[in-house]
Design brief:
The structure holds two protein chains of two kinds.
Chain A (H helix, E strand, L loop, with lengths): L6 H9 L3 H23 L2 H17 L10 H20 L5 H11 L13 H14 L2 H11 L5 H8 L3 H20 L1
Chain B lengths: L6 H9 L4 H8 L8 H16 L7 H39 L3 E2 L4 H6 L2 H7 L14 H8 L31 H10 L5 H10 L4 H8 L2 H7 L6 E2 H8 L3 H13 L3 H14 L7 H7 L1
Antiparallel strand pairs in B: 1-2
Helix pairs in contact in B: 1-2, 7-8, 12-14, 13-14
Classes of the chains: A mainly alpha, B mainly alpha.
Chain lengths: 183, 284
């Protein structure tokens, strides 16, 4: 019942008062949203709070929903806005100079780079640490891509920047993650 | 695990459908799920939203507050009503029960009566001869018909009737009853009646008082405060000394009118009893 409907159809049905449609929609995206928030914010308490707040805003705006974009994009955009607000209150952004330093180090000859065959556990641990160390904008862009499966344009629409800026942020994020594996 | 270092190539892999090797690695990270309490909160909020209900947090407080307010308002209204009844009831209740408001005994009323009746007032009429004795409410008043002894000339502020059309007393729709009431109100008890019988012979001052021009007395007398004979009856039950002390106490409490009425009754009951000096002024 409702399993064959798209996210957008379910959202429209919920806006008409169909609670089962919302439950289906929620079950589809609860994990994605939670992981995006958890890895984007680093702290579980913050993730819990913004998880509930994201759904609250979605519920409040249900009657204004128009299926112009994917439901996932809309959901992640709400979450992204909340994350950015939280970032602004928490700490300053990493400067571009700092990011350039990371990239210059990555451009060192391969012979100078340690090449370790890391265990599966170590690889996952380093990825998590690398994500935590990413500047907020890069981490969010990376998570929107890798967790949300969004394309450059969608990420740009959510984050309010152009396509090239999104590509730049993703490149910087990749470079930092690679650097974590290289050490 | 060796990671490719070509940034552009790396980005292209990330933007592939599987997000490249980093995507593979990311998907092997623990699949974190929201706790159940968050699920309940979100689904509950979604349900409340489509049912058009406000958040449940304070709804019980609104109901409780409304109920408490109603109870409080009802209680206040009840008390106010009771107080109003209490304030209105003394006169009517006492009138209906046993006593009537006491008015000062003045010669004015007696003078108003025909001369023959005034003369008849000197001897005590037995209660059974009172024509209105059949009326239960009036029988006790009739028993106390006494007052041949004139009251001392009341002070100007004490025993004056209200300044109405009647020269001396307020208009009374029931003159006969009123006359008896006037005469008996100050001696509602048997002791008073007896005392007034004794005093009946000494009514010469009343004659002198009766000679005063009525209009003059009307002008000088202030309207009496409404006073119930209940209090006077209570005073009569006191011993003479206690009664006088009570009158003094009334005077100290600023209840001058009541003190005057009580003193006048005292003098009816105990005509030969000397008054304390501080009550002499009240007497005149």
């Amino acid at each position: 019942m409702g399993a064959d409907k798209t996210d957008e159809e379910l959202m429209l049905a919920y806006a008409e008062g169909d609670l089962l449609a919302f439950e289906m929609l929620y079950s589809r995206h609860r994990g994605l949203l939670y992981r995006f928030l958890l890895r984007g914010l680093r702290h579980r308490a913050d993730a819990d709070e913004l998880f509930q707040e994201t759904w609250s805003r979605l519920i409040a705006a249900r009657e204004r929903y128009r299926p112009d974009a994917k439901f996932t994009t809309w959901l992640l955009q709400i979450a992204h806005n909340l994350i950015i607000d939280r970032f602004r209150r928490q700490r300053p952004q990493v400067s571009a100079e700092e990011a350039d330093t990371v990239l210059r180090n990555l451009d060192a000859p391969e012979s100078e780079q340690p090449d370790h065959a890391l265990s599966e556990f170590e690889q996952r641990r380093r990825l998590q640490l690398a994500l935590e160390d990413l500047p907020d904008e890069q981490r969010v862009a990376f998570l929107l891509r890798i967790e949300g499966g969004l394309g450059l344009d969608e990420i740009g629409a959510i984050t309010g920047v152009g396509r090239e800026t999104v590509k730049s942020r993703l490149r910087y994020a990749l470079a930092r993650i690679r650097a974590r594996f290289a050490t | 695990m060796t990671m490719p270092r070509d940034n552009h190539q790396d980005l292209d892999r990330l933007l592939d459908s599987g997000s490249g090797d980093l995507g593979d690695l990311y998907r092997r990270l623990p699949r974190m799920e929201p706790p159940r309490r968050l699920d309940r909160a979100v689904l509950g909020e979604a349900a409340r939203a489509v049912r058009g209900r406000p958040p449940r947090r304070h709804r019980w407080m609104v109901g409780l507050g409304s109920a408490a307010g109603l109870v409080l308002a009802a209680g206040v209204a009840w008390h106010v009503g009771q107080d109003a009844l209490r304030q209105q009831s003394p006169n009517s209740a006492q009138r209906g029960m046993i006593v009537v408001p006491v008015e000062p005994i003045t010669e004015t009323r007696r003078k108003r009566a025909p001369p023959s009746e005034t003369k008849e007032a000197a001897p005590i009429s037995p209660p059974q001869t009172t024509p209105t004795a059949a009326k239960p409410g009036l029988s006790r008043r009739a028993e106390a018909r006494p007052v041949a002894k004139p009251a001392p000339t009341p002070p100007a502020s004490a025993a004056a009737p209200p300044p109405t059309a009647s020269p001396a007393v307020e208009p009374d729709p029931f003159p006969a009853e009123s006359r008896m009431r006037d005469e008996t109100a100050t001696s509602a008890g048997a002791a008073a009646m007896q005392a007034e019988q004794d005093a009946a012979a000494k009514n010469e001052p009343a004659a002198a008082a009766l000679k005063q021009p009525e209009s003059k007395r009307v002008r000088t007398e202030a309207p009496p405060a409404p006073l119930s004979s209940v209090e006077l009856r209570r005073d009569m039950q006191l011993a003479p000394d206690d009664w006088l002390a009570h009158i003094e106490q009334l005077l100290h409490q600023g209840r001058r009118q009541q003190a005057i009425e009580s003193l006048r009754l005292f003098q009816h009951v105990y005509p030969n009893r000397p008054l304390p000096p501080n009550l002499h002024a009240l007497d005149h």
